[in-house]
Amino acid sequence: MATATGRLGRPVVRQPLVRRRRLAEMLDAGVRRSVTLVCAGPGWGKSTLVASWAEARAGTGPIAWLTLAARHNDSRIFWSDLVGALRTAGAVRCGNPLEAFEADDLAVRRVAAGLDALPSPVVVVLDNFHVVGDPAVMAGLATLLHEPPPALRLVLVTRTEPGLPLHRFRAGGDLTEIRARHLAFRAPEAAGLPAVHEQRLDVEELTGLLNRTEGWAVGLQMMAGGDTRAVADYLLNEVVSGMPAKMREFLYRSSVPDAVCGPLADALTGETHSRRLLERLASGNAFVVPVDGRPGWFRYHPLLREVLRDRLQLDQPGVEPQLHLLAAQWYAKQRSTLDALQHAAAAEDWPFVGRLVVGRALVAFMSGERQTLLSVLHAIPADHITDTAELTLCGAALRYEAGDHGGVRAMLRRARTMLADVPQVSVQVDLTVRLMENGAVVRPRGDMPALIEATTHLLRLLASLRQDELPSLLHYRAVTLNNKGIALLWTDRPDHADRYLWAAATAARSVGGALIEVDALAHLGLLVFLQGAVREAAEFVRSAVDLARRHGFESTPQVAAAYLTQALVELEQDRVAEAQEALRRGLHAAGVDPPVLLAELAVLVRVQVLLATGDPAAARTLIRQTRAEAPRTLVSALHERWLRLAESEADLQLGAAREVLTRYQRVPPRGLLSPAEHVCVARAHLATGNRAAAEDILGRVRDGADQVAAVTAWIATAFDADTEGHGNRSIDALSRAVLAAERESIRRPFRTFDTRRMAALLDRRRWVDVEPAGGLPDGPAAVLSERERDVLRYLPTVLTAGEIAANLNISVNTVKAHMRSIYRKLGAARRRDAVVRARQLGLI
């Protein structure tokens, strides 16, 4: 702190002092120009900074210091004392017009003439400049600064914006400004303050102190010693008490929100010109500052806000909840739902909280604002959680977050019962109940046909509504599309599932529903993995995991499917350790009581790990145990097919090929075998000596879209040809397997067969080094245009046609035309087929 020894002369700086080099350098740069402005509220260390800088620079040139007081609102006194300060600093020498200065009506001209006569620059510090507002003084200074004398280096130290025409200096780059944001203490500087140093605060405590005080010097020193009463007294006396009663009331009432704008302040205070009042407070450095990036919004310093709210509670008990309710209603009208929700909770208006959650806020559960919503839901008292149907749905959301599926079902049943007694149920409540039943009851049970039926019905209802009838319409549609897509996948209808999951991912992205998009991308990854597109599956998984990490969803069941699919991809690439780590992450994200099919997927991954590590007996035991313990609610054709295939792979490793053939003879007529199942059956035929049946099956798989099955089929063909003594055909088939495997980074199929024979065949292939018969067709590659190739590069990504168009800087219609042309030239019916075909041709 600095204390003035008189009206003239530099204040004495108390020791010890924290030297702040960065600010001293700003002052050094400033006094090379005409004007330096040090402007901040009380207690920011303005005078101390400039005084300590002046003390350190005392030998570099004269520094005249005048500490202003109310008496300096007299023009004669002001100019007389200013000249006195110049004389005290030794700037006025023999012969200078200021030597015989007498204050009169020509004082400004005489001062200007005296400054013009100085042989070298002089720094003039006007401290406490905010106490001077006399028009004559201001006009005289404005005249002096209109064409400032070359020797003048003016430093203004003030709490408020000076009433001087400084805009010319600012525009010309001739004004240095040091504001509160510069004066705020940083961690190393704060640690050097005596009051802080004595407390020996650790890094976390010091960070908390800096956050609470925002580097305010006086606040740091008082708060370090825990003297909150002194801080309150200082702010009340230095900032609040001197204001008119109406302004003080404005501060109290508008301090309730974290940030405030003019219209919100109007709603809280009953004023009609709050924006102007806030701007006046900000320009007056009354610890009110504009919010970065939000024009028209202001916030109060945290300590001032605490003081104001304490005073409000003391002087007007019971008013604060009313103000929170006013803020909640204002935010609700602005459709700023989470802000409205937080204020409604602070007002403890729980029915209003319930209506806001169901009407608009529940969708935040699926976005990066999930934790904000949960913090409000957790604030609802237990004895109010079932007061209304809407609050009961809030309770269901809390149970879902906790993984309490039984609790979710109980809450939803209670909500249904409550709605049965309501004459006219609102659309929002009815559809929210349906949505939560689908996602938190039907889907976790694993009854996929029931989920398809429920989501189909809900999509039909959503299609009949407008967004003004259901504000969350687009979010609800994205959720329902995703649930139906997942249900179609597990009912073994991949083509339909593909369309719905793509639609869900796109819809979720458009409304900021990151959690829905993660879920859709994860299941798209699983879908294409099951179709043998390993690289594409890895891309979907990467997109899902990256999105989950960005939004803090790494420990949710939605990302668990991505980790489990990643484990399957790693296994196909013969990276067992990495697969086990991905499995571990998936189990952790799934939680202690995961949805049935997520738990079953984890079991299937464990089965694949056992098969990959050469323990088929344990894999078969786990499969049979899984069948025996499967919940009665589980209905999934894909799950049944996958278990059957995994058991058959275990049987092949155990030499039980006839069991495989018997198993697939019992497949219902409706069940067309997948490429992977075809290969499994073909290998069983080879093991039992039925070469003709095996070749008939392998011939249909080798050139198919399922790359894992195709690689396995070519390897099986190579082994069979080698057994029959057809060396060239064996090497040719193995070469095709190697080329296809390299495109997809597939390794596991080569481990599936006899390792010694595989090593011998691969060694023979290296010696012979032949190309596969006929090579790869290259016709389409030659006819794809350059722009079509550009579009083709984006097809394996999750980008929509519109997003591809934006990346290529062409119209979306042009992109769609190129896509149709690509499909035609590659003989593909849809996007994924085109990707698979392009990879087979080596185009991507």
From TrEMBL:
Keyword terms, alphabetized = DNA-binding, Transcription, Transcription regulation
Q: Could you state one GO biological process linked to this protein?
A: regulation of DNA-templated transcription
Pfam family of the protein (one):
WHD_MalT
The record, for InterPro entries, names: P-loop_NTPase, Sig_transdc_resp-reg_C-effctor, TPR-like_helical_dom_sf, Tscrpt_reg_LuxR_C, WH-like_DNA-bd_sf, WHD_MalT
Is rRNA-binding included in the keywords of this UniProt record?
no
One GO molecular-function entry: DNA binding
Q: What positions does the domain HTH luxR-type occupy?
A: 777-842
Entry-linked PANTHER family: DNA-BINDING TRANSCRIPTIONAL ACTIVATOR DEVR_DOSR
Q: What is this protein called?
A: Transcriptional regulator
Provide the organism lineage as a comma list: Bacteria, Bacillati, Actinomycetota, Actinomycetes, Micromonosporales
